[in-house]
Each structure stands twice: as structure tokens, then as C-alpha cells.
Description:
This protein has 4 helices and 2 strands; from the N terminus they run βααβαα. The chain is α+β, with helices and mostly antiparallel strands.
Amino acid sequence: MRKAKVTKVTPSIDKTFKVPIDVIEDLKALALIHGSHGRALQVGTELLIRMARKPKVKAVTGVPVEGQTYTILPRTLDLIERLLPSYKNRGSVLRAVVQVLREQP
């Protein structure tokens, strides 16, 4: 008898965001510290959602954006959606996540 093939252990999803290029580069650097892009986003959104005073992100105009796909947990996507009222778009939420992660020791 053959065992059934196991696909993904966790219920992670692939989600594409339109993200400014500088945020993509920052997330790549943070992924080295946290193990993966998805894990960095998870840690950053968990920290950001718990902050009483959310950090302000500067509105950067004219910065090229690119579609970037991240493998994240459904909870991380839910937290990003819950943070949207505090920020203009998902790219700004990810910029705030990067800012929060950079401030961590």
C-alpha cells in the first residue's frame, strides 16, 4: 500500500499584494532574520495589531509598485485586512509592518 501524498502541513495560502519595491527589498532582508517572508509578515502584523498607537507611514508617491506573492497564514491575511482602516492600502500596511520589525531589538 502507498501512503497518500501530504501537500501542505499548515493551512497557508498564497496571496499577491501590490507592494512598493523598497518594501519588498526590506522584507527580503527581514526574511533572513525571521526565516521566511511569510513568518516576517506574521510577526510584524501580530505586533502591529496589538499596538495602541499605530506608527504613521509616510505617503510615498511615485515609487514603483510590483505584484509580490507571499505564502501566509489565513490569520495574517485577516490581520492585514483589519489594519486597512488605519492605512490607505495593503502596501502601506506592509510598509508599517517593516517599520515595526525594524524597531524590534
